[in-house]
Every structure is written in structure tokens, then in C-alpha cells.
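Thread: Modeling a multi-component assembly for a lab meeting

Hi all, long-time lurker, first post. My supervisor asked me to bring a structural picture of a complex we are working on to next week's group meeting, and I have zero experience with this. I have the sequence lines for every component (847 residues in total). Could someone generate the structure of the whole assembly? Inputs are pasted exactly as I received them:
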Amino acid sequence: MSNELEFLSRHVAAGKLSRRDFLGRAAALGIAAPFANSLLSSAARAAGPVKGGTLKAGLVGGESTNSLDPALMMTQVPFAFGKCWGEMIVELSPDGKLENRIAEEIGSSDDAKTWTLKIRDGVEFHNGKTVTAEDVAATLERHSDEKSKSGALGYMKGIATIKASGKEVVLTLKEANADLPYLLSDYHLIVQPNGGKDKPDAGISAGPYVVKTNEPGVRHGGERFANYWQGDKMGHADQIEVIVINDATARTAALQGGQVNMINRVEPKIVDLIKRVPGVTIRNHAGPGHYVFIMHCNTAPFDNNDLRMALKLAIDREEMLTKVLRGYGSLGNDFPINSSYPLFTEIEQRKYDPDKAKFHYKKSGHDGTVLLRTSDVAFPGAVDASQLFQQSAAKAGIKIELKREPGDGYWNEVWNKQPFCASYWGGRSTQDQMYSTAYLSTADWNDTRFKRPDFDKMVLAARAELDEAKRKQMYHDMAVMVRDEGGLILPMFNQFIDATGAKVDGWVDDPHQELMNGYALAKCWLQA
Amino acid sequence: MSSPILKLIAQRIALGVLLLLAISVLIFAGTQILPGDVAQAILGQSATPESLANLREQLGLNDPAYVRYFHWLGGVLTGNLGTAMSSGQDIATSIKGRLWNTLFLAFWAAIVAVPLAIILGLIAVRYRNGWVDKLISGLALASTSFPEFFIGYVLVYFFAVKWQIFPGISTVYDGMPFGERMQAIALPATALTLVVLAHMMRMTRAAILNVMQSAYVETAELKGLSAFNVIRKHAFPNAIAPIINVVMLNLAYLIVGVVVVEVIFVYPGMGQYLVDHVTKRDVPVVQAVGLIFAAVYISLNIIADIAAIIANPRLRHPK
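Re: Modeling a multi-component assembly
Sure thing. I ran the full set together rather than chain by chain. Output:
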């Protein structure tokens, strides 16, 4: 009996039998529908991707002010749509390794200062032109130009010269950097004809889909690119569509009503409800994003390490994780790195300890209240989290006064300006990137005002170190320093929570970003 | 007879234009006191001092305010609304599509809501204080008391998720077949209808009831006219001015006040467009949309005034 079913399920996967007929046949054989369905989907997976159909995603994070210029991409919708039409030089695979894309090979000199990218043959842009080393060089030039508005400018500034010769692009760096290939996987660095210098928002690259519709803030659509160089791996649906749905309730309703096949950012508090909807699968997995409270180490009263330590000990991480994230996250330990980073090492977990907190608070000599600024835009549930913090600190005799700031303008007026506030970090792909972005003395985004020449030296040394064991040790020491002396209170890492509808197949969890690092539309397919 | 009316109309329009000009100053001043600036808002958390300075220079944010005001006004008068700072798109072009969407939705909501409200109002008056009147008034009060988002979500829950009759998200686009477009707007139009219905219906009822107190209605009743004829022939024409007023007010609301409904149904109209640009501090867009909204309000009010004047002989021939 089950042999017959298996045979039939392969027929369905091969498109020789309709799904409905199969389920009817299974019912006739006395097989319950859920089992028959799971049999079917495993057969479909074994049979490989199915071509055809329109794959639709309903996503938060799109505005009518979005542009197709990769340099200006910031929010989730341009990010996810960019992965559909754009092709990268190099990419991070779901298991954390580097995957060469337009670059066929990346090699470095022994001192990690000169890097050579060999450009792949026969990759074609949507306009029919072949991708050349000049295009790649021009792309990097555009994003590393001091005048550029590129979101990748911060990392790209480290490149001293960019030269294209023949099939190769040679980069020389100002300082040695063993992580350069990881930097090149930044989602802004979509390779464009002539680097996008002529028309940055033309939406032309070499990705699996050609831009057909671009209505910022409403919807974006793409049609499969016939000459895509990796047609067997990506671009299974004939068309893809991203519909901007910023309202969480509307988004889940659209998934339930079958109007979209996948959504991002399911709120933790409704995950358990959504799980009960037939056909809907929750795709949650850990990532490097974290919810934080940041103190300026150079501003009174936070310039006192005992006070900082008191606050770090006065936060009940476990309670926050269960109440704010409903368990969809992991405990933080006051340094911005977790196991999703390649060179992560465990450090003893800091716990809620009101007595110790009281001791450090007394030692700091500060009395009176501590003003914490918060807002719901800092991270989802930030106001609740701040109130929990206030209560747990009160038990340690520390009075936290909450100031609820308007969401509008929070990132301009409060974050990186006020000495103590709630905030959010999306994380980066390597430890070096994370520390360089926010913990180097010179970093523009040093939002804890952590200014330590000894720490800076460690960052630069680790960056140039090619021996992995030594590097791991260096990152361990840096983490301990940030954890014990920095201005960061990191109670929890959040998970990405996406959800897919009944017919979506081919999903692979990816720790780097939501929606399979943005590739969900490009890599998933609709079951026949 | 026509010349005093034409004169009145011309006066109203001239006043409207003046008012619009005053509003343009207010809008411009208002956008200047928003905290932060557009360069900061565009770059958000990724702003570095260099990129900020570059962007500010490029957007011309360094000129004094009055220079920018006259520059803007000159543009508006010649039909040039400028380009959006954040995306570099021509504002007039992107607003055109959005405005059309908003008007389309408002039109169909109005087509259903206005006659329905007036008819329900008439029925309520006819059976005043009976159970029909109480039922209509009760339902109307209920639908008015629920916030828009509640009505919207209830509609989505039943019609889109549970029964899957209509789509829960109303993304419309250019070149969409008419039938599909109507299907897409079914739920937001229903939500809007429910939101504005009660106000118009209750005003109609109140206005007609007011007239029903007059002596000539009593005369008509004593003449032996049927109740409906009394209302239709004697009461309604005399109550038309306040009814038109409230209808116009609600029409204006359908165009400028639908932000919540647009967000719930993901409808690409003006409200959503405005909200996006306010958060981005995209001043030219905010100004342009503000001005369009003001113009809609002012012109609908002018129309209401003129209609009231035409309907009322006492206003038509001022002493």
C-alpha cells in the first residue's frame, strides 16, 4: 500500500498526476490527509525545484521613498527585492561559509593587504552586456567614494586602490584585513553595469529576476531572467512579487487568506496563534540581531564603571526573553556577538543579581534616579522591556526613570545623542565588522562612546591576523572587555520570525538575515 | 438673477484662493519646525557626518527659509511640485497615480454611502420614534463608534481570511482590469462607507426633523398629504443645505482622512504616501500633499456654500 503511495507521490512530483487526485487516492487507501501531504512534500523536495508560478511575499519595511539605487537600500523590502534582481560579488552561504558569485576566486597576499578577485566568465547583465572586471571595479569605486551616500561606505573606506586588469580586480587596503571577502558580501554591493555610475537606480544587474514593476512603497515585481547564469539554483518561479504590507495584522491576514506566500517579521506575541493556522509554517531562527540599552561611557553618571556594572546586573534577562520575545530569541551577555558569528567563543553568562547590583551601585557613589529613554521604534516591545528593567532594578534599589520618546525622530534625536536609551542592532557578518562599526574610538556609530586606545589596537591586530586560533583568542579578549567595561547592556538576541504559506518549498534557514538572507523569493518554489 | 449668483460664486472662489495661499504659508512654516532634517532622516541610523554634509549640500538645505518658500510657491504656480528629496522622483508624477487611487476609492465609497445615508435618513424620519428609526439610528451609532481599524480588521477577518471572498489587501496598479480593481477595493470601500454613513444619515434625519416642526409642514399634513410626500416635497428641499454641507464634509474626509483605512488594506493612496514622507522629513512632498488636501477641503466647502445659496432663496437675494 505505501509502495503504491510513494509511486504515486513521485508521479505528482513529476507532474504526471494532480495533487487532488493523489489526495483522493490516498484517502481511498485509508491514509490521513496530513500524512499524505507530508509524503507528497518530501517527494516534491526529492524531485527538486518546481519551475513556474508567481511567488509573492508580503513584507514590512517598504516606503514610497525607496529607490532601486543599491547604495541607498536600508529597509527590508529593498533588501529582499535587491537579492532578486541584483547579483553580488560574493555571498555568505547559510552555513556561514563564503560562496563566490560574480567573483570566481578571491585570493590575498600573505599580509592580507592586497586582494585579487577573479571575475567569472559568461555572467550576463539584464541588458545583455557581459559582466566584466571593470564593472565590478566601478561598483566598488562608487560605494567607496567619500561623496557617496552608500550604506557600505563605512567598510569600503578601508580600500586604498581599486584596479581592473583583464579578468581581475585588484584591491589594496589601507590596513590589513583578513575579513575583506565578508565585507564584500554587504547587500549594498550589487554589481551594476559601470558600477551604476551612469544610472544608479536603473535596477539592472545580473540576478535571477529582471525588474518589471517598481512602485516604491506599494509593490515590486520581477520576471525570471532567461539568461541567468545559475538557473538551476535560483529563479524557480516565473515571476516574483513583493507587496509592501507594513501593518502586522494585514500582513498575517494576507498570508492566511493566501494572497501572499510568505511574510517577514511575525510578532513574537502572535506566533503561537499563527502556528495553529493550517498550511502556515513559522520559520524562526537565530541571527545576530540584538536588542540593547546603551549608556555613554563618557557622560555622567555613566562614566563610572561601577554604575554601569550595577545596571548590567540589575536587568533580568530571562524574564525579558520570556515576556518580550516569548522565547523567540536567546540570552545576551553584554557583548554584541553570539554563535551566529564564525569565531564566537562562550563567555560565562551574566545573571540577574540584585545584591551584587546594589553593591556596585553603592560603590559608584551615585544616588537619585537614572533616566532611560525608550520608544517602541527602538525595537518591538522596547517600552515593555524598559518597564521590566525598571522593576528589576528597583529590587536592587536602583531607581530608573523612564522617558517615553516619540517614535518619529527617535533615530535622529535620541539614539547616539542621549546618554542612556533603548536601541536595536541588526548585527554584522563578522566580529570585526561589528566591533569596527560600533566600538572603535573613531567609529561614527560608537553609540556607547566606548573610547579605548587599547581596544582599538586589539581590533586592528585581530583584523590583520590570519591564524584562526589566535584570532579567536583575540576576539574573546575583546568581548570580555566590552562585557565588563563597556556601555552596552544586551539582554537578548532576537530571532528572525518569517512565515510561509501552504505551497512554499525549498526553504533553508539562514542565520544571517531574515527571509533566508533575503533569498527566499529567489530560491523557494511553489509546489505543483 | 444669474449675475448676483455669479458674483457670489466669484467671490467665494477668490476667497478660497486667498485662503489657500495663507495655508501654503502655514504648511511651509509647519514643515520647518519638524525635528531633524531630511538628510538625517534619509540616512537614518546609517548617517555619517560626511554623508550628511554631502546630502544636505545636494538637497539645497543650506538656503534660508523664505528663499525656499518663494522658490516652492513659484514652482507650484507653474505646476511644478518639485522632486522628492528622498527618492529623487518627480512629485507631480508620483502624486498623480496616488491621487487617482484615492479619488477612485472615495468615489465608489461615496456612490454607495451618500444615497444610502440619505435614504436611510428619510426612512428614519418617516418612521420616527418607531422601531425602524431606532434600529437604523442604533446601527448607525454603533458603526460610528467603532474605530476604523476595528471595522477594517473585522471585514478582513470575515471576508478575506475566513470566507476568502474578497482580498484582504488592496494593492491596485496601473492597467489592472476594472473588475479586479473593484474586487480589490470592495473591503476598504465598505469600511469607509460604514465610517461615514452614520454621520450623514443622522444629519439628514436631524435636518429634516428640524423642518418638520415648521408651520407649513403642519399645513401640508393637514392637507392630507401622505407622510412620504410631506417629507419628499416639503421637508427635504428645505433641509437640503445642511445635508449638502455634511455630505461635502464627509466627501472631504473620504479623500483626506483615509490614512488608517489605507494602511490596513495596503491601499496605495495619498494617505500612505503622506505618512511615508513625513517620517522621512521629505518636505517638498509633505508640502505638496498638504496643499492638495487643503485645496480639496476648500473647494468642497465652496461647492457646499454655493449649493446652499442656490437652494435657499433667502440667501440668493440678500437684503
